[in-house]
Structures are given as C-alpha cells and as structure tokens.
Write a structure and sequence with these properties.
- The protein is α/β, with parallel strands linked by helices.
- Helix content is 37%, strand content 14%.
- The protein is built from 11 helices and 15 strands.
- An 8-stranded parallel β-sheet has the order 12-11-10-9-6-3-2-15, with helices on both faces. Strands 1-7-8 form a 3-stranded antiparallel β-sheet. It has a two-stranded antiparallel ribbon with strand order 4-5.
- The mean pLDDT is 94.
- The structure holds phosphoenolpyruvate (PEP) and manganese (II) ion.
- The site of phosphoenolpyruvate (PEP) has 10 residues, from loops.
C-alpha cells in the first residue's frame, strides 16, 4: 500500500525518559492525554513519500547541487490563517526563489516555516509588564499572546487547533502549488500589487521580463517542460512540543519506518538541542529530514555527536545544520565546525540563519534586526564556506509577505522610529516583502561569487 500510514504504537516513546526543555506546564495532564489520543486518530498532514522526496532534494543541497530557501514567520498565529496571508507568504517565497534560481542559476529547494510553526521556545519563563508577572507566551499552540492571566494558561485544546490550522494552511498551499499559481508563466503576476511602489519590486520586474524572454525562447525551440508549470513546496517547523509531534508520528506501511507527519521537515532549536535531551531522542526516531540550529556556543564535538545520533548512516539530506552565530562571530566560529564535520566525512547541508544571532532592542523598545547585519552574516557564511571549499547550502529566514516594519534598513531605509507603524509579529521581527526580495537579489550575487 503506497504512502499508507499505520497508527504509531504507543511504546515508541523513549524520549519520555529524558529531560525535555521548553515544555508547557499543562495544568491538566488528563486533558492533554485526551487531546493526544484524538490527534493519534487524525489523518497525517504529510505523507512519508513526500518527506523522502524532500530528503532527496536536500541531498542535492548537501552535495552542492542545489540551494535551500527556508522561510516564513517566526511564529504563525491562528488569526493569520487567511487566504490573503497564506497567498502573500507563498508569493514572497516564490519571488525569492525565482530571483535565486535565475540570478544564481541553481535549483532552489523551497521550504516554508509554515503549516505548523506555532510553538515558541522562550528565554524567560515569565514576562513582567507594569509590575505584573505572567507566564510567557509560548506560541498559539500553547497559550494566548494577550497579556492576561487567563490567556497565558496553557490549554491543550490549542494543539487540536494547531492541527486544524496547519491542515487548512497546507490545503491552500497545495492548491496554489498544483493549481497553476506557481507556474513560472505567473512570474509577473506574483509582483502585481508591489511593483509600482518599491525599488525591489522594480528590480524584480526586470528579472521577470528576462525570465519571460527565456521562456518564449524555449517555447519557440519546442521545449516546454512540465517543471516550469508547477513547483515543489515543502513545510517545516520547530518540533518543540513533543506530545504533539509524538501524537502525529506514524509508521509508514511501505517501509515500516516512523515519520513525524506534522510537516515535511522538522528542526530542533538552539534551546532544545541538548545531547541527552528528549528532542534529540525524538528526532532520532523519525525519518523526516531534520535540521538542527547551531548557535555560537556549539562545539565541534557537539556537532559530531549530533551527526552520530541523527544521521548514523550518513544519508545526505537527512541532516541540515542551520548555523545562527551572529554577523560579528560567524567568521570566527563557523570554520572549526565545518572543518571537523568535513574531516569526519559527514555530508550535512549547511544553511545560514542570519536572523537569530542578530536580534537587539531598538531605542523605541521594539525587538528588531538590522538588514545590514542579516546580510553581513550571510556574507560571512559564504566567505567561510568558499575558503574551506564546502557548499554554502542555503538560507533560513524569518520573512512575511506583508509590508510590516519590524526590521530596520533595507531598500526603504526603515529606522527605529518607523518600527511602531506596522509591527505585527507575535514573536521575532521578520523581513518585510521588500527586504526579503532585496536579500534574495544580494544572496544570488553572492552565490554567483
Ligand atoms: C526560531 O527559529 O524562531 C528560533 C527560536 O530559533 P533558534 O532556536 O535558533 O533561537
Ligand atoms: Mn524566531
């Protein structure tokens, strides 16, 4: 039976005996158990065969033959699940991918932080405002953003809403992707509501014209491959709330291997990658492609242990290291990791998250990032990999399709005083559409070298 799934036997839960960081303090464990039983009865959101296809695409990234574009919100919200918002995120990713594919002449693997990115690790368990201290917001999958005692109580019913909102999002993404919206002939229409106002939009319009010319030339030559009319787009999220991820895991009936069917790719965050921790144990038992965030404290020995635990068979595409060192430190810290991993013979995909090492609080009190620092970290990432002969395999970015004002700099030169105008992120600041396209053009130039 191709692509079938069997319910997961409950005994495959070795992670439960290990410390699990960043888990909510659910007030009623029995209510959580009922929710997990319900989730176990639900259909998978993605199929094992799709996850394997993504592993094959990421293997090309690891071999140096493709580039990963992974992006989306820091935190999806239930309110953000609307046709307009999903379309605008997808459109931005498709535009960035067109810029990178055409500008850098490299196949681009497109993976959204979407349809499941609802859970957030936090540096503090509580938050204080005007003398009032409440539990911190841990993502819409756990509690509410609103600063009231009621909203901040973890509610397991939210895990069911996460499943349903992920399913609705994925359904529309699949419809757009297979229904003609992602056809390269639409390369102009993705830009329609944007071009007049933005320098990045105008630059994009010129690139779209070149793509059009290339397509017309190919058609005139009698070449019109189906690859141009549809694309692949995969989902990913941080596998943070292990009760949810475990309840969504299934055995694939073709291979009897286990998959986390909540998304195609999962990653382990900087705060949950402990070598003796539950997150690593859980991820080691599922066959999805797995990413691990590596921050500035990561040692080369830790990286090697992560490889042994997550990719003992050294399967290219299985493991992606997403480095997030900060612009000022990447040139110093990344070489030792890459050298040791390469010397060990492991073929991981190296990807740069230029967001999380570059967050600061602006004079206005907003959590922000500067476009220049983001760009500088990507430049450092390219410098290091070029110097060592390894492949700069991709970028992992927090972006949105809307004209928000959350990061400073970029084409419009946003400054701290602009941030209040449209600051909408439920968690970390995202590049807006214009900053995202700016970044794609600059990364394409770096890739070309
Ligand atoms: C994130 O990707 O939103 C995140 C929390 O990242 P990190 O684990 O790298 O801090
Ligand atoms: Mn984030």
């Amino acid at each position: 039976m191709p692509y079938g799934t069997l319910p997961s036997p409950l005994d495959e839960q070795t992670w439960r005996s290990m410390p699990a960081a960043q888990q909510p303090d659910w007030p009623d464990p029995a209510a959580l158990e009922r929710v997990c039983d319900e989730l176990r009865s639900y259909p998978p959101l993605v199929f094992a065969g799709e996850c394997d296809n993504l592993t094959a695409r990421l293997a090309a990234v690891a071999r140096g033959e493709a580039f990963l574009l992974q992006g989306g919100d820091c935190a999806e919200t239930f309110d953000g699940v609307s046709a307009d918002q999903i379309r605008s995120k997808l459109k931005t990713m498709l535009q960035m991918a067109a810029v990178l594919t055409f500008g850098a002449s490299v196949p681009v693997v497109k993976v959204g932080r979407i349809a499941g990115q609802y859970s957030k690790p936090r540096s503090q368990p509580t938050e204080t405002r005007d003398g009032v201290t409440l539990p911190t917001y841990r993502g819409d999958s756990v509690n509410g953003l609103e600063f009231t005692a009621g909203a901040r109580v973890p509610d397991p019913q939210r895990l069911l809403r996460m499943y349903n909102h992920s399913a609705a999002t994925l359904n529309l993404v699949r419809a757009f992707i297979t229904g003609g919206y992602a056809d390269l002939r639409e390369v102009h229409s993705w830009n329609q509501d944007f071009v007049r106002t933005s320098p990045a939009g105008q630059r994009y319009e010129r690139l779209a014209e070149e793509i059009d010319c290339a397509l017309s030339f190919m058609r005139a030559c009698g070449v019109d491959p189906t690859e141009l009319h549809r694309t692949e787009f995969y989902t990913s999220h941080e596998a943070l709330i292990l009760d949810y991820e475990c309840a969504m895991s299934r055995l694939d009936s073709r291979t009897t291997r286990r998959y986390d069917t909540s998304g195609h790719m999962i990653w382990i965050g900087e705060r949950t990658r402990q070598l003796d921790g539950a997150h690593l144990e859980f991820a080691s038992k599922v066959s999805n492609p797995v990413g691990v965030k590596l921050g500035p404290t990561t040692t080369a020995d830790e990286a090697l242990t992560l490889i042994d635990r997550l990719d003992p068979k050294r399967t290219p595409g299985r493991l992606t290291f997403i480095t997030r060192m900060g612009a000022e430190r990447i040139r110093d810290l990344l070489p030792a990791l890459v050298e040791k991993v390469t010397a060990e013979g492991a073929r991981v995909a190296w990807v740069c998250d230029p967001m999380h090492g570059n967050t600061f609080t602006a004079s206005t009190g907003h959590k922000t990032r500067s476009f220049d620092a983001v760009l500088d970290e990507v430049a450092g990432f390219f410098d290091v990999h070029r110097a060592l002969g390894s492949h700069p395999g991709g970028i992992h970015v927090e972006i949105t399709g809307d004209d928000v004002t959350e990061c400073v700099g970029g084409g419009f030169g946003l400054v701290a005083e602009d941030l209040h105008q449209r600051y909408e992120s439920a968690c970390d600041p995202r590049l807006n559409r214009s900053q995202s396209l700016d970044l794609a053009f600059l990364v394409a130039e770096m890739y070309r070298g």
